[in-house]
Structure formats: C-alpha cells, structure tokens
Amino acid sequence: MFCLFSFKTACSQEVSDSSKFYKVETVDGNEYVGHIIIMNSDYIRLKTANLGEITINQKDVTKLSVISKERVSGGGVSYGELHSSRYFTTSNGYGLKKGSGYYQNMWIFYNQFGYGFTDNFSISAGVVPLFLFAGASSPVWITPKVSIPLKKDKVNLGAGILVASVLGEDNEAFGYGYGVITFGSGQKNLSIGLGYGYYGNSWSDRPTISLCFKIPAGKRGYVMAENYFLPIDDERVMLSLIGGRSLIRKVALDYGLVIPVVSGMEQFVAIPWLGVTIPLGED
C-alpha cells in the first residue's frame, strides 16, 4: 500500500509492465489478476485472462501486488500454494516460505501455529487447551522442521522432531523424530516418511512408516490421504485418514474419515474428521 501511495504521489507518468502478473484488490472486495497495460495516478488498465482489458480507478484500489506465474490459475489467484507443506495432520518435504505461517484448528480443541523463519526452516507449536475446563491437564508441543529441495518442485526432503508434554502432569517429554521425502509439486505429490517415537530417553526400536498423497480435484479442491503403518507388538496396524481439502479463498477446509485397520478386526470403524487452516503473512 505504501509503494502504491508513493507511486501515486511521486508522478503522474503512465507506466506499463507486461512482464509480470499483478493482483489488484479493490474496496468492494474483488481481486483482479493480469498484466498492467497502463498505470498512472488516475487509473490502472489491466489485461486479464477472463475479462480482457479492464480499467480500475486508483481511488478504488486497496492493494497492488506482484504474484508469481505459478499462482495464476483460471484467470485468478490460486491459494493452494499457501497450504502446500501440509496434509491433514502431518507435513511433507516442502516447507513454509520465509515470513509466512498458518493457524490450524481441528475439532475446535486442537490448535497449532506454524512460522517459516527461512525458506528451509520452520517451527510449529500447538496446544489442546483442556485447562479451560476446570484446569484439566493440557497437551502442548513444538516441532522444528528443516526442508531441503533436492530437485526444485519435483523432489523435496524434510526432517523434524516433535517434542510434547502435558501441562499439569509430572511426566517426561515424548514425541517422535521423522524424515520424509516428497515426489511431485506442492499441489500434486506423494510422500513417504519414516519416524521413531520416544518417551524420555527411550526410543522405539521399530519405525512408523507413512504414505501420504495429495491430488487436485477441480480448481479449488484436493483429494488427500494419510496412511500410517504402526509397529504395535505383533499386530499389523494401519491408521488411514482419507478425505479432501476445499479452498475458500485463502482458507483451507479439510474433511475426511479416520479409519483404523487391525489384523483380526471384525467391525468397520470410521471417525469423522474436520479441520481448518488459515494462512498468515502471505497474499
């Protein structure tokens, strides 16, 4: 906004820029995306994919920003990239961009924030605030993560550790360390992960293996799944979370079913899943 104001007041010279994509936000809440044909102190003439050339009065513009070509979809802005580092509950090999973040809520009680300190390092932290109910013990956790692009937008490697505790209980820290490799772009990918749980100084001797994927379904939706193969005694246990993601502007609405599969299980069980993620710090 400051840059836009500075431009307006500095000169009235007409400027054109057809090499970049711009997003113009207006006072009525609309967004327009395209190449700038003419911009001066009175108006912006924008060449859009769907509407052709349009003229927007400068007094109606609230924000003008440059966006990457990858985020232009169907003549508008795709916000799927803002959620490219996560599935339902777990992350993939991609990381948050520097200065960006998110707030995630699942079934009201689960709350988590994440922030990218660099393009390769982020930290998320969360709480289930049961202390609001008669001071009940409340789980808290923090998860630092590093992300390394092995081949840009095709192969990414991620690693992190979740450190958790329960406020109000006299217990040792617990959690898990993990590594994950992701094949594909941030919008369409497959991830294979390996993790070891721990409690105090004791680590599990067998890993949990994860297999997750995300596939676009329409302009504003995805089909997603998380599958975990758990090392529980001599049982063969798989925990699956299968469902989808719908984008409502920048906000991601996740929904699905949690399906446990245990050897010898005689009854089908499916638990509803609902979550919402709000991106922070990005257009």
Task: Write a structural description.
- With 283 residues, the protein is mainly β.
- The chain folds into 2 domains: 2-71, SH3 type barrels (Roll); 80-280, Beta Barrel (Porin).
- Helix content is 3%, strand content 61%.
- It has 1 helix and 20 strands.
- The chain has one helix at residues 2-10, and strands at residues 15-26, 31-39, 43-48, 52-57, 61-67, 72-73, 76-77, 101-106, 110-116, 121-127, 138-151, 155-167, 174-184, 189-199, 202-203, 208-216, 221-232, 235-248, 251-262, 271-280.
- The chain has a 12-stranded antiparallel barrel with strand order 8-9-10-11-12-13-14-16-17-18-19-20.
- A hairpin with a 2-residue loop joins strand 14 and strand 15 (202-203).
- The two termini are 13 Å apart.
Jot down its keywords.
283 residues, mainly beta, SH3 type barrels, Porin, 2 domains, 12-stranded antiparallel barrel, 5-stranded antiparallel beta sheet, elongated, disordered N terminus
Main beta-sheet strand count, sense and barrel state? 12 strands, antiparallel, barrel
What is the fourth-level CATH superfamily of the largest domain? monomeric porin ompg
Quaternary state, please?
A: single chain
| Average pLDDT number | 88
Brief write-up:
The protein has 283 residues and is mainly beta.
Reconstruct the topology from this structure.
Layout: H1 2-10, E1 15-26, E2 31-39, E3 43-48, E4 52-57, E5 61-67, E6 72-73, E7 76-77, E8 101-106, E9 110-116, E10 121-127, E11 138-151, E12 155-167, E13 174-184, E14 189-199, E15 202-203, E16 208-216, E17 221-232, E18 235-248, E19 251-262, E20 271-280
